[in-house]
């Protein structure tokens, strides 16, 4: 049985509230779980102590049993000092999207055309003076 430590959504529409639960990976997101390990309220400020509350001892026990945390829960555990910080790499994050690249190319072409147009009259004037 593959165990996961993940978030189960609660709360009403546009007012999310999550339980941190230990569950079988085959169960639905908001379905049956084995144990509630804590809560996460994303509506609270990031510096609030009430935003993420976990039973650290229970989480460590589940990790020792082989439960795998999801990425979001792993980040919370790293912040709490339970897991070591994992190196993440997303090299495409800083690359602009296709439309932004197209706009940048158009802007560069217009700037080059304007510079060329500005340089052409200066050359004509220099030739006329000679």
TrEMBL record:
InterPro entries registered for this protein in UniProt: Ribosomal_bS16, Ribosomal_bS16_dom_sf
Biased composition (Low complexity): 110-121
Keyword Ribosomal protein annotated: yes
Region called Disordered, residue ranges: 82-130
Biased composition (Basic and acidic residues): 99-109
SUPFAM superfamilies on file: Ribosomal protein S16
Presence of keyword Ribosomal protein: yes
The organism's place on the tree of life at top rank: Bacteria
Molecular functions (GO terms): structural constituent of ribosome
Keywords attached to this entry: Ribonucleoprotein, Ribosomal protein
One annotated GO biological process: translation
Any one annotated GO CC term: small ribosomal subunit
Cited NCBIfam families: S16
Family: Belongs to the bacterial ribosomal protein bS16 family.
Protein name: Small ribosomal subunit protein bS16
Source species of the chain: Celeribacter ethanolicus
């Amino acid at each position: 049985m593959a165990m996961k430590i993940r978030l189960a959504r609660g709360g009403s529409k546009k007012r999310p509230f999550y339980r941190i639960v230990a569950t079988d990976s085959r169960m639905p997101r908001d379905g049956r779980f084995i144990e509630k390990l804590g809560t996460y309220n994303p509506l609270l400020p990031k510096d609030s102590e009430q935003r993420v509350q976990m039973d650290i001892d229970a989480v460590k026990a589940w990790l020792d049993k082989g439960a795998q945390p999801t990425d979001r829960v792993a980040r919370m555990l790293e912040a709490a000092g339970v897991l070591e910080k994992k190196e993440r790499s997303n090299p495409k994050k800083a690359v602009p999207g296709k439309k932004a690249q197209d706009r940048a190319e158009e802007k560069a072409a217009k700037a080059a055309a304007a510079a060329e147009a500005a340089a052409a009259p200066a050359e004509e004037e220099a030739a006329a003076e000679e």
